[in-house]
Amino acid sequence: MAAVAEVPDEPGQPPALTALSLAEQSQAKTKEQIITPFDVSGGLDEHGKPVAIDYNKLIDKFGSQRIDKPLLERFETVTGHKAHRLLRRGLVFSHRDLSVILDKYEKGIPFFLYTGRGPSSDSMHVGHTIPFEFTKYLQDVFNVPLVIMLTDDEKFFHSAKLTQKECRRFAMQNAMDIIAIGFDMKKTFIFADSEFTESAFAGAFNENVREMGKRTTANQIRGTFGFTDSNNISEFHFPAMQSATAFATSFPFIFGYDTKKVSKVPCLIPCAIDQDPYFRQCRDNAPRLKLPKPAIIHTVFLPSLRGSESKMSASDVESSIFLSDTDKQIKKKIGQAFSGGQETLEEQREKGGRTSVDVPFQYLTFFLEDDAKLEELRADYESGKITSGDMKAACTKEMQAYVSAFRERRKAVTEKVRGEFMRPRQLQFTGMPSDEEQTAARKSKFAALLSSLSLDDIEFLRQEKLNEGS
What is the pTM of this model? Predict the structure, then answer.
């Protein structure tokens, strides 16, 4: 497009239609896409029309790397497993240091997975399951421990309306939804910030929070998240909390008490791309703590039922398919979803549908496992062989089956099961510390603790022990 100064005004135009004023109007209507942990939208074009999220722009802006074909092939070679459909279809599309994790796995060096959820409603929607389903796949493929963080405190800090009690309730309900994805209890620890950080098991975690907080400036937080003086101080502090979970030393009950050894255990974080700012901050500061930078692997957003210019949101009930929705509700919602079909049947037969903007087809790319069937639907729709009604029917069938299977698994998740997932404990995985190593490390830590106590402190502890036995 030519610069404004290079576009001549036509004689006789009223002032509101000069080239300069038209350019200014266009600029006023144009809006860049916004992708942050708190706001996701694809922006507006020069006509003020919403546009789809541009993931290539995000890679350039965030400075991550695309998951290309050679990396995908190496992933399959190293793991010996077929890539998940989200990887095959480019829906897990970007990464930081995934190659480093593959290198370590090849050498038998242990690592762990970390993901999370900001609980803002009683029930999760199908968009929330995308990173969790992919995380489960990674856990199964690599046989590694997983830590899931429920940031009920962050939701309370950032929301003007939610109470601590509500956020806590959401966390407990969401934990049961997450468990129903199918995670292995022996390899998974789930915690809610408001509960875990005040427990006796959070000493090492809180120490890392303080270390990270000390090394993070307010200017860094402003630059990363766009915070202003109107944001509360807890919002400024929270990134240190989310960062601490990326370090194995925060969880000695899982990885052992040999700090020198555990401090070398790296982390891989599967998450939606809007969470990347938190972990860029973490990666910037991790070397200053002499801890490994977490590796990250990014998923795209499941689009809203209204169109691909925004993600599915729990705050917009009609634009989302919830895991608690009935078959009837799912059918109704997909029936009203944005379609890429033509206005009339005749036009559809002649021109075909547009799968690039058709929400039901996009949902099938996320949830339909069969690559050949997906390709058949795409070809038939674009050629005009099938209609938008046919595409919506195929999507409805798949989504009803997906949510129905989830509901059955969810019935088996009791409060007792949730309690076990959320109990701090030793997990079972390849490379876990042996009982002998744990015992030796605990004795060493206890000896170091005793050496720091005064004789009066030691005598006090001895008397307390005697009193307990009497």
Answer: 0.85
